[in-house]
Specification:
By secondary structure, the chain is α/β, with parallel strands linked by helices. 46% of the residues lie in helices and 13% in strands. The chain has two domains: 98 residues, no CATH class; 135 residues, no CATH class. The longest helix has 20 residues.
Length: 254
């Protein structure tokens, strides 16, 4: 491969922040000399997430081996993922009277037809199901671990403990029809609302208006091209999502 210069659309301050986290981890482990410095390792991982370049492409661009690239990227993602908030930690910041938006999406993966657990009949493609809890303005508070693509959103929400966690804190949850029957504090649109009285139709309109900003959370997540079609192991997609959530939080707070 022939290396060439390129740019990545992330703030310089974000690369610096990630490099300090890497530096802290190296000091903690008393790591020896590395082929790449902390800043270059941070940039390597961000290019991988933002542009979804293959490991051989990254290796050629940074002048290291493919094996070293894989190790550096994995180490950086683990560091970033460790800073992502847990479910209960994310809900602590909510005040009385606040509500959240819960939604699910599919992260497309490069799978073969035989991998049935990962095939979503709803989206007609292979992938991994991920759930999000977002603020009313669409700011993501928490992303779940990933489950195979054929997992129903309501099943995933219950498995991750979202319904019970929101109930225990009496947090109102707005969700789409995929969560029908969740009960607790979850509110979904009415079915067959056109056949119902006007106040049911008005409820559905208001519900859709309040829930719409939740789509921004996934739009922000998928602006990192790795998640538009993930080529990595399905076990690593969840780590990548947690790492990206940490980066999104750093960008918004900065």
């Amino acid at each position: 491969m022939v290396p060439y210069r390129a740019t990545v659309d992330v703030p310089y301050e974000l690369v610096e922040h990630v490099s300090w986290l890497i530096y802290a981890r190296r000091c903690e482990r008393r790591s020896r000399w590395r082929k790449l410095g902390c800043f270059k390792q941070a940039l390597l991982a961000l290019v991988h997430l933002r542009k979804n370049e293959t490991l051989p492409q990254l290796a050629a661009g940074f002048g290291i081996s493919t094996t070293t690239t894989w190790r550096y990227v994995g180490e950086t993602l683990d560091i970033l993922a460790s800073w992502a908030p847990g479910l209960h930690e994310a809900l602590v910041a909510l005040g009385e009277g606040d509500f959240v938006i819960v939604d699910g999406t599919l992260i497309p993966t490069d799978r073969i037809a035989a991998d049935q657990p990962y095939y979503s009949h709803k989206h007609r493609k292979h992938g991994m199901n991920v759930q999000v809890i977002a603020r009313p303005d669409g700011t993501p508070l928490w992303f779940s671990r990933t489950t195979p693509g054929r997992t129903h959103d309501l099943t995933a929400a219950r498995a991750h403990g979202i319904v019970q966690a929101c109930l225990s804190r009496q947090i109102l949850v707005l969700a789409d029809r995929a969560y029908q029957g969740a009960g607790a504090t979850v509110r979904t649109p009415y079915y067959h609302h056109r056949e119902q009285p006007e106040h049911y139709q008005q409820f559905n309109r208001d519900h859709a208006r309040l829930r719409a900003p939740g789509e921004r959370a996934f739009a922000q997540l998928k602006s990192w091209r790795l998640l538009r079609r993930a080529r990595c192991s399905t076990h690593r997609i969840g780590t990548a999502i947690q790492a990206i959530h940490t980066l999104m939080t750093c960008s918004s707070s900065g």
